[in-house]
Specification:
Keywords: Coiled coil. By secondary structure, this protein is mostly helical. It has three helices and no strands.
Length: about 130
């Protein structure tokens, strides 16, 4: 069964990776022979060590993902706050502009009224 798994795994990788894979496998077998451990115990220990390494890497990745998500949320909030403040400032400026425009139009109206009044006075006093 294990040989079948190894063969199947070996078919899914490139030639240089196959050589590396089988070289590592030979090292494991030789190390197992020279120690009191069986081949399966040695493989189990290596896989367990890899699993523990992956656990700590996954925990680190999750921690970084969480930090990134917090920063993303904060930047979104900051951007919204800045955008809203900018929109408010633009609204104030627009209101001021509209107020000045209305005042200008009002002054123009009264200037027209005064000019018309002056013309009428000039015609009547003529």
């Amino acid at each position: 069964y294990i040989c079948g798994e190894i063969r199947q795994e070996g078919e899914n990788v490139s030639y240089s990776n196959k050589i590396t894979f089988f070289t590592e496998l030979i090292k494991i077998v030789e190390a197992a022979k020279s120690s009191n451990l069986t081949l399966f115990d040695k493989i189990y220990n290596i896989l367990n060590a890899e699993k523990e390494k992956n656990k700590s890497l996954n925990a680190e990745i999750e921690k970084l993902r969480s930090e990134l998500e917090q920063k993303k949320r904060k930047y979104k909030e900051d951007f919204k706050r800045i955008h809203d403040a900018h929109q408010d400032a633009m609204r104030v400026q627009l209101n001021e502009f509209n107020g000045l425009r209305d005042e200008n139009n009002n002054l123009r109206y009264w200037i027209t009224v005064l000019e018309t009044g002056i013309e009428l006075l000039q015609e009547t006093t003529g």
